[in-house]
């Protein structure tokens, strides 16, 4: 993981904010819950969220596990739902409130963003045991879409890497044509991040392109995936 972060830092250092001093910069407070830190950073509003994320990575003094699956998260405020910012969009496309001072974002591991407030923590814990997650992956493999939906309706978070294969629910669904399109749709509707990476650092789009999974690729693009999503190498 440290090597992964180092490579990301080396690539993003060439686009440091100092080179764009003439551009009006945006200042954010960035909370990083996993290492209990908060930083104030300046970002170019015309840069993508991906570039802003790399800038946060450059500022880290501690390594984070599976860092490519971290994202910039906007907590719920003033009637707006909490969400992770889409990495291919420009930072300025996300309006910020300055009423309470410097706008605040979090740099955190991508998880399902629940709309329900009355979640049963015990039920959630049962859903996320190794055995339950294996069963969920089996449902994807056998195209048991109805059973997948039931698991997610109970609160399962479909953003995880299989402990044996390193695949994610979405990356597995991509490889399960011809039924993959329907599985992809219900996974995204159930809270799966469309750019959540498997253990090899690839997104579902990368897997679809490399495996020539045409139906799956069209399904991903129709749900908002981007063909310009970066690999670990840039």
Automatic annotation (TrEMBL):
Top-level division of the source organism's lineage: Eukaryota
Q: Where are the ANK repeats?
A: 165-199, 200-232
Q: Which GO terms describe its cellular component?
A: dendritic spine; postsynaptic density; postsynaptic membrane
- Could you tell me which residue ranges the Talin N-terminal F0 domain spans? 28-95
Q: Name one GO molecular function term.
A: ionotropic glutamate receptor binding
Which PROSITE patterns does UniProt cross-reference here?
Answer: ANK_REPEAT
What Pfam family does this protein match (any one)?
FERM_f0
The record's listing under SUPFAM superfamilies reads: Ankyrin repeat
User: InterPro entries from the xrefs?
Assistant: Ankyrin_rpt, Ankyrin_rpt-contain_sf, FERM_f0, SHANK
Q: Which UniProt keywords apply?
A: ANK repeat
By what name is this protein known?
Talin N-terminal F0 domain-containing protein
Query: Which organism does this record belong to?
Result: Takifugu bimaculatus
């Amino acid at each position: 993981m440290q090597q992964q972060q180092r490579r990301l830092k080396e690539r993003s250092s060439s686009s440091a904010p100092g080179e764009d001093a003439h551009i009006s910069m945006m200042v954010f407070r960035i909370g990083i819950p996993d290492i209990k830190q908060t930083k104030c950073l300046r970002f170019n509003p015309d840069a993508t969220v991906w570039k802003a994320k790399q800038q946060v990575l450059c500022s880290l003094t501690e390594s984070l596990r599976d860092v490519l699956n971290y994202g910039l998260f906007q907590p719920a405020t003033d009637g707006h739902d909490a969400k992770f910012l889409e990495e291919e969009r420009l930072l300025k496309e996300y309006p910020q409130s300055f009423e309470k001072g410097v706008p605040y974002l979090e740099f955190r591991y991508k998880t399902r963003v629940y709309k329900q407030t009355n979640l049963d923590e015990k039920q959630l814990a049962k859903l996320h045991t190794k055995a339950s997650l294996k069963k969920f992956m089996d449902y994807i493999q056998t195209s048991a879409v109805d059973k997948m939906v039931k698991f997610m309706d109970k609160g399962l978070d479909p953003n995880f890497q299989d402990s044996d294969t390193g695949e994610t629910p979405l990356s597995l669904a991509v490889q399960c044509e011809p039924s993959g399109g329907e599985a992809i749709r219900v996974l995204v509707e159930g809270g799966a991040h469309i750019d959540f990476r498997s253990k090899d650092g690839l997104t579902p789009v990368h897997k679809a392109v490399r495996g020539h999974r045409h139906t799956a690729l069209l399904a991903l693009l129709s749900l908002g995936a981007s063909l310009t999503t970066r690999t670990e190498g840039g």
